[in-house]
Amino acid sequence: MKRQTMLYCNEGNKKSFQKVFMFLIIVNLFSTIFSTHIYGQESRLPEAPIFIDNLPVKTKYIMRDGQLMVPSLFLKHTGVRVDWNEDYRSVVFSYGDTRFALPVGQNYSDDFVRATGQWQRQPLTTRTIEFAGDIFVPLLDVTRKFGMRATYNPQLGRTFITTNIRSAPNFVYRGNPQKKLVALTFDDGPDAFYTPKILDILKSKQVPATFFVMGKQVEAYPNVMRRIVNEGHGIANHTWSHPALPRQLTERVIEEVRRTQNIMEQTVGRKPDLFRPPFGAITKSDALVLHEMGFRTIMWSVDTLDWSGLSGEEILNIVQRDITPGGIVLQHNFQTNARLLDGTVEALPLIIDDLRAKGYRFVTVQTLLAND
Ligand SMILES: [Zn+2]
Fold this sequence. Notes:
The chain is an alpha/beta fold. The chain has helices at residues 2-9, 14-34, 139-145, 194-205, 215-220, 222-230, 250-268, 284-292, 312-322, 342-357, 365-370; strands at residues 47-52, 55-60, 62-64, 67-71, 81-85, 90-95, 98-103, 108-113, 118-123, 129-131, 134-138, 149-153, 158-162, 171-172, 181-187, 210-213, 234-237, 274-275, 296-298, 302-303, 327-332, 361-362. The chain has two domains: 42-162, Copper amine oxidase-like, N-terminal domain (Copper Amine Oxidase, Chain A, domain 1, 2-Layer Sandwich); 171-370, Alpha-Beta Barrel (TIM Barrel), CATH 3.20.20. The protein has eleven helices and 22 strands. Residues 1-42 have low confidence and may be disordered. It binds zinc ion. The site of zinc ion (ZN) has 5 residues, from loops.
């Protein structure tokens, strides 16, 4: 980086090297002291875990006026919804009957009072600020408004939050371990290159699989989507455009899922009730929202890592190593990088023959869940 370049440039001259070195120490000191007030690189912000219902969740933070400030979207990990009101330039938090807005640059919140239908202004301990692309909010103020308990343990230097918000009861990692069933799943399609090859193999081996589709891919390849359904495979929602959900406002999460449901309905005349988050990344809030929308969130028990360009043999080895009765195998059928999924196609007949020889029966995720 810049600092290092400067040092190397001065290497030949010891005296000026020392001067520069002292100067850098001072600059460093000042930038540490004032870092919270300087608009700089995101990478400069410290990170720490905050314990939510005893689970550590890492976050960037800023200390300001003695208050711990975190990006507003971090609050989704507690279970609350986080949205944005452009007219008032406010972050809007909501859960149950509680709803309040924190305008950027202000040291107050506007709280919705259900009984009167009015918004009431309340002071905050410090200002809500925009920093490096995120809106930072005072964590304790926000959690307190939801009636959560937040404590700081000075010995451990850690912050603990007790939310009293129950988790969504709908995460599935595997099916019934008593039955020798396995569900092959393919994410991110449909496409015109890999998906037909995969469908050909599944058809010739008479194996049903489950496709977690992206809405925009369904829109682009409706005929491949129809073929998936016509050949008896399970279908599931994998968002419209594959964003990392923890980085999205609640409204956007809902929009990504709804839009995909609509294109599925238009294309194949039905809507799935299974969902898988892009990258497997999801907050408690997103999971609750999806549960309310009637979805079950499907994860996996075997990660083939096929997207990283593994060979068919390497993928087979991972499946052989990690498979258990009731297993859900994660594979992919679309990649923007050309030919990265050749291994997936290569591995598929090998996996099918191998698991069949071991007594496994292939089912859709829907059938797997029905056997629970
Ligand atoms: Zn995906």
